[in-house]
Structures are given as C-alpha cells and as structure tokens.
Amino acid sequence: MMNPLPAPVARKNQFASDNYSGICPQAWQAMAAANQGWADAYGNDPWTEQACDLVREFFETDCQVFFVFNGTAANSLALAALCHSYHSVICHESSHVETDECGAAEFFSNGTKILLVPGAGGKVDLEAVAHTVGRRSDIHYPKPKVLSITQATELGTVYSESELCAVGDLARRLGLRLHMDGARFANALASLNAAPADLSWRAGVDVLTLGGTKNGMAVGEAVVFFNRELALEFDYRCKQAGQLASKMRFLAAPWIGLLQSGAYLDNAAHANRCAALLEREISAIPGISLCHPRQANAVFVSMPPALSEALQARGWHFYTFIGSGHARFMCSWNTEERDVRALANDLRDLAAHLPHRHPAAKN
Ligand SMILES: *Cc1c(COP(=O)(O)O)cnc(C)c1O
Q1: % of the chain residues with pLDDT over 90
Q2: Considering only CA atoms, which residue is closest to atom 10 of ligand 1?
Q3: Domains (ranges, CATH) in the chain?
Q4: CB of 220 shorter than 6 A to ligand 1
Q5: Residues contacting 135, CB < 8 A, separation 6+
Q6: Distances (CA, A) of 133 to 141, 144, 154
Q7: What is the pTM of this model?
C-alpha cells in the first residue's frame, strides 16, 4: 500500500525569494499541452522549435537559444563559451556569479579568473572596470575577456537604457564581450517599460542568461546568444555539463506559455508592483530604512536585529545574507497584496513595540 501523501506545508508568509513560488498557470498549462504522446528527444521537437522562435520574436533578432535547467548552469556555461582558461571575467562583487554559484564559472571554464569590481547599488562602476582592464597588459595577468553584469541587479536595482549603453560602449572600447545575467530580466523590462532588444543586444549584450524559474516556471533558463558565432558548439557544452534535457519539450513549453500569453511580462510587473507597495507601506516606519532604490521586485531594509528576529518569529521568511546583509523582501508572480499589507502591518506593530535605545547608550 502506498503511504499517504504528506500534507503540503503552509508557508504563506513568504518573501524569501521568487524561487519559493510555485508554477504559474500559463507555464503549467503549456507543460500539460506538451504532454501528448511521443516527441523526438534532446530538443528535436516542435515545442523547442516554437519556443526558440518566440524568444527570437521577443528580441526581434535571429539569436541562438538554448534551454538549460538552472541559472548557475546558464551563467557558467555562457561564460565558459566566451573564455579560455587564461582569461578573466569582470563582474560586480555582489554578483550571483561570484557569490552564489560555488565557483561554477571557474570550473566550467577550466580556471578562468573572476575579477571583482565595486559599484553603487549592485551596478558595476565603469571606472573600476576600465582600471581593472587597463592596469596591466603583461602576460602575467589573467587576460580580461568578458564583462558580466546583472539585470535586474542582486540589490534590486535596474540599469537604465542609457546606463546599459554606457556599459556596452565601454565593453566594446576595452575589447570585452558583454554577458548579462538576466535571472530577473523580465523585472527590469517591466520596471523600465522598455523593449527587450533595447535592454540587450542593441546595448551591446553578446550573451544573455534569460531567467524563467523566478518568473513562474517550474524549472529552466534560456541562454540567448545575440552574437551567434559565440554559440559555436555550445550544445556540446550543455551536454557535457549534464544540461541537455532529453525531454526538452518540457523545458521549452513553459516559454511558449509565458511568451505567447504575455505572462512573462505580466508576472514580473505584478512582482514589481507588490514590491513598490511594500516600499510605500514601510517607508515611514521609524527605526527602519530602505537600503537601495527599489526598482524591481525586491525591497532591501536595514532594521535592528531584534526587529528582524521578531519578524521571523511571527513566521515571515526573508533572506539576510544577500549583498550587504540587510533584510531582503522578494516578491514574485504569486505574492498577494494582502501578504504585503500583512507584512507591513507586522513590521509597523513590532517596530512600535521595540524597546528604544537610550540616546546616551549610542556609540
Ligand atoms: C536566482 C539567480 C540565478 C540562478 O540561480 P540558480 O539557483 O542556479 O537557478 C542567477 N543569477 C541571479 C542574479 C539570481 O538571482
């Protein structure tokens, strides 16, 4: 006899990450629609072809598209495709590639070195990039080859179109390829109300990691090569890394569902709106302050540790290890307005009852 299924754990109070959310209806339906009979394996199926075409349509260009399981693979395989082992990749010190991928970029590129630059709000400081490239040109230095930026950034900010163009110009001037980690590319699109092409290849992006999971899919990111020559033999890289799905149609189908219905943008816009509401609701609470400009679906908050702990004790989940270690509240396609209001109410309530420090105790 089969064991009864465990009851789902109700974790309603959820602002930890947009990958704590479930599968959105459009992605789920598209997977169900692809679940018909037999189809050729390893991407030779009509769903994969259609999904690639939809991505090309979305970006208004004839790009090369690959579907992989997750963002770490998408980023590190893309970077490996752009580098030899003696090259280096320049990225922000708080970038996912540096802090959250367990050295995968270095691993898959057989030793390519990551060089870190600072920058306000999670955006690379262009002077620091130029300095990192220009300070050495001798054979002893890992040869800078790629500039990798994140859009929206790890700190919930967004590069504007003109900022992106400046990044693209600099990369071209310095002879660097430009990679964009777009795990939350849709949130940046929704935030700027811009055309996908303007935030990518028209600004000089060679390769984009296009996020699907955090937008509402079960699993999957796309690697989009605007510079098609760089995609040479990328399929082999995916296969060797264990990232070539045999039942590819189920990685591809959700893209059809999200892009055809417009949910890809709608989901991101909804998440951004929830974050904006949270920002408005909590900005006037004494004792807490907002850390970075809220431009996408995350709100970063500085608050006393006692308040953070009290909030967690009430069942709210959020991360405190991202970037500079502030509390991060992340909204997703299925965050509800009442969740946001309930969180804000608890924050307000707890902040009002927190024992105030005596001014004399200040140091
Ligand atoms: C979530 C995320 C990724 C992907 O992470 P995986 O867990 O490997 O799918 C990549 N970049 C950024 C900025 C992210 O937030």
Answers
A1: 91
A2: 71
A3: 24-261 (3.40.640.10), 264-353 (3.90.1150.10)
A4: no
A5: none
A6: 10, 6, 23
A7: 0.95
